[in-house]
Amino acid sequence: MPGDKPGNSHGRTAPERLLENRKTVSGKVIAPEGFEDRNVIFDTVPMKITEALLAEHAVFHNLFDYAERTVPRLKTVAEVRSLAHLVEALLLAHSHTEEQLLVEPLEHCLEQIGHRQTFHQEHQEIDDHLKRAQTVRSLKQARHHLLAAVVSSRKHFDKEERIVFPLAEQHLKSRTLTELCSTWTEHRNRAIGQDEA
Fold first, then answer.
1. Is pTM, for the whole model, over 0.85?
2. Are residues 56 and 148 in the same domain?
3. What digits encode the pLDDT tens for the residues 55-70?
């Protein structure tokens, strides 16, 4: 818009826009600029944990696309290590939340269909590849392990979306899924130091 600073949407800084998005996900909506004085009421539909985690998966797939395009062109081990460290940090936060809020309540279901141990093994395989990508000295090996972690992550996400998420929808009440999403939002806010006011 005319008069806006470059990089600012509607005169808001990036942290302000991020806070607005976070509050929208948590069920609190801030009216966009220009609507403050109009008594406009925005009603939000509560989000389920499965929807929130699926949205995170979409973001990860974009990161994985970037890694697959970029890793073959990286020139140093340090560059690969840096990207592997970023992927590891993001996946760690995601998998911890997913494990605690979704997999643990469904542990008995996963055990019955023979997938409980498989899911834990897949997490370990991804972790091992990411650690190796950060410790090997060979550029070729670092690339290999980072890309192997990306491929394993994509397969794991696919399995979660085909098995875990439908199990959650089938065995947990809609209200429980919504409450788990509220817990997810609280975890995210604490992780970034943004407690609800």
1. no
2. yes
3. 999 999 999 999 999 9
